[in-house]
Write a structure and sequence with these properties.
The chain is 69% helix and 0% strand. By secondary structure, the protein is mostly helical. Helix 1 crosses helix 13, helix 2 packs antiparallel against helix 11 and helix 14 (263-277) runs antiparallel to helix 15.
């Protein structure tokens, strides 16, 4: 599930923390990196579990309606259709998924009052009301209502607060997690016991790329700075924003040590990350410095890419 951009961001965060926390060792930072990667997958599981719990609340809604002394016509006709949705049921009956949820201790993070409120808010929507009135819902209808429920929750400020409270780095992984949840819902019912494996962090991204990048940037810091300083022209290295310098070192390291990543991809990725995490002028600064560095490295034969089209002239 994790893209290389997300991995770059997590490496950047660890390098920044190392630069600010004198008590943090490299091994400590590596441990933290692995933890936040682990939490990215847990965030996916938590979103999925929370969605299931909101859908399941339809059963409690049914019980409350039946317990009324004077039920309305709507109360009499109501069914726990959302909870009995066969796609949701396929998740509920998945032993491997349930075991994973328990292993991550996620049920303890679910607040039933919040679940009830999410359901109550969604129950007011025209989409939910129309779904309940469908006489013979098809699989596509069941998928649409779950996608609609997820979209409704994402637009609920309280829902995002729950995610923020439990996972402070939620915003960094939001686009990937949202995409993964949508893909999961569209692929329901689950046909594989361990369907979630598609969204677990891969060793290629996390270890072979991320951990190596973190290791090299940290341990080759002075060498990277020595290469960067001549390209700064009228800038002193000490005046460069901390995040910008870290991004430059990471990009430089990536250019020289990862032969299968095209130079253009490296340049574009770090410019985009600068837009998100640094100052307003950083993207132009990063772009300019990296352009000079690439020309210098190419001239010195320090960039060696594998395959056609990987090296920009």
């Amino acid at each position: 599930m994790l893209s290389r951009r997300n991995v770059r961001i997590k490496v950047m965060q660890m390098l920044y923390t190392l630069s600010r926390d004198q008590d943090l060792t490299y091994n400590g930072a590596l441990k933290q990196y692995r933890k936040i990667v682990f939490l990215s997958f847990e965030l996916y599981l938590f979103n999925l579990l929370l969605l299931i719990r909101v859908a399941e609340y339809a059963k409690q809604d049914l019980e409350k309606r039946r317990a009324k002394l004077r039920p309305s016509e709507d109360d009499k006709q109501f069914t726990a259709k959302l909870a009995e949705n066969p796609l949701i049921v396929s998740l509920l009956h998945n032993d491997a998924f349930n075991s994973l949820i328990r292993g991550h201790k996620l049920p303890a993070k679910i607040d039933e009052d919040q679940v009830r409120q999410f359901y109550v808010d969604f129950a007011k929507t025209d989409q939910y009301k129309a779904y309940l009135k469908q006489a013979d819902s098809q699989q596509s209808d069941h998928k649409d209502i779950l996608l609609g429920l997820f979209k409704h929750c994402l637009n609920n400020e309280s829902f995002t607060e729950v995610l923020d409270d439990n996972y402070p780095l939620w915003i960094d992984d939001k686009s990937l997690v949202v995409g993964a949840i949508k893909k999961t819902l569209k692929a329901l019912p689950v046909t594989s016991e361990e369907f979630y494996q598609n969204y677990q962090p891969s060793d290629e991204a996390v270890k072979e790329f991320g951990e190596l990048l973190l290791h090299k940037v940290y341990h080759e810091d002075s060498d990277l700075l020595e290469l960067i300083e001549p390209t700064l022209k009228n800038w002193d290295a000490d005046r460069v924003a901390a995040i910008d310098m870290i991004l430059l070192k990471m990009a430089l390291c990536e250019l020289m040590n990862f032969p299968t990543i095209p130079t253009k991809v490296t340049l574009n990725e770090f410019v985009e990350i600068a837009k998100l995490y640094s100052t307003e002028k950083s993207k132009d600064f990063i772009n300019g410095i990296l352009d000079r560095l690439m020309k210098k490295l190419n001239k010195d034969g320090k960039i060696n890419k594998e395959g056609r089209g990987l090296l920009e002239s």
